[in-house]
Amino acid sequence: MGCISSVIKENNIGAVFHLAAQLPSADDLDDPQSSFDVNVRGTLNTLHAACMHKVARFIYSSSIDVYSEPPQYLPVDERHPTRPGTHYGAGKLAGELYGNLYSNSIKVTVLRYSIVYGRGCKRGGAVNRFIHQAANCEPLTIYGAGAQSNDFVYVGDVVQANLLALEQDKPGIYNIGSGEETSVKGLAQSIIKLTGSRSGIFFTHTESNKPFRFALDISSAQKALGYEPLTLSRGLSEYIKHFELKEYEITRR
């Protein structure tokens, strides 16, 4: 905590954006201590340091991974039951609970992100993989039938949400996504169309590890913060426009 405390004190920081985290990996269940140290202990240390030095605002990046899977109802709002299925989700929820513990001293805003894609996002998952495959005119591989769905949000909209959370000064918990439910098959079709690729779609016989629908309710953030995300089509277009294609060249129709 000493390093964080010194940074806050020496720079007279009035607001903290806490986005640091160890993202989930394939060995999430095999190495829980590392996830705990970064995502839980790290958040507690940062919150405590902020409290010690009388920071006014704390904006915490959480995740839809805190919700139960599969969801109990759609779309998922902020009142939906929380029951994480991974160490990452459990760590994010623990961070929210610690934030609530400190909320008498600091104004805490929690932003629960959906699946973030865009420049610099290591967790872009299917979006990154599909764009790479489309850029090479390779088949876009889909696990199962592609009916599973999620909410995909452009990284620029996540930045917008953080800045609005600071400007509006309305502490609370907010879902941050696109507000669109998109199937994996629909995502693949959109990327093929937007890139102009000649790729087809290949359906594997391996079922997705999340073979259920997921849709996010973002109305609270829209009403309280003035949050207005890009549509999926516009967000994908922005990403594709800036996508690093040093080793790839999309073959257009």
Task: Explain this structure.
The chain has 253 residues and is an alpha/beta fold. The protein has two domains: 113 residues, NAD(P)-binding Rossmann-like Domain (Rossmann fold); 109 residues, UDP-galactose 4-epimerase, domain 1. It is built from eight helices and ten strands. The strands form four sheets. The chain has a four-stranded parallel β-sheet with strand order 1-2-3-8, with helices on both faces. A two-stranded parallel ribbon has the order 4-7. Strands 5-10 form a two-stranded parallel sheet. Helix 1 runs parallel beside helix 2, helix 2 runs parallel beside helix 3 and helix 4 runs parallel beside helix 6. The radius of gyration is 19 Å and the shape is elongated. The termini are far apart.
Notable characteristics:
253 residues, Rossmann fold, 2 domains, four-stranded parallel β-sheet, 10 strands
Fold topology:
Elements: H1 2-10, E1 15-18, H2 32-52, E2 57-63, H3 87-101, E3 107-113, E4 115-117, H4 126-135, E5 140-143, E6 149-150, E7 152-154, H5 155-168, E8 172-176, E9 182-183, H6 184-195, E10 201-204, H7 219-225, H8 232-242
Parallel strand pairs: 1-2, 2-3, 3-8, 4-7, 5-10
Antiparallel strand pairs: 6-9
Helix pairs in contact: 1-2, 2-3, 4-6, 6-8
Question: Kindly state the mean pLDDT as a whole number?
Answer: 92
Distance between the termini: 56 Å
Low-confidence segments, given as residue ranges, are none
Q: Looking at CATH, which topology of the largest domain would you report?
A: Rossmann fold
**Class per helix and strand makeup:** alpha/beta
Strand segment count: 10
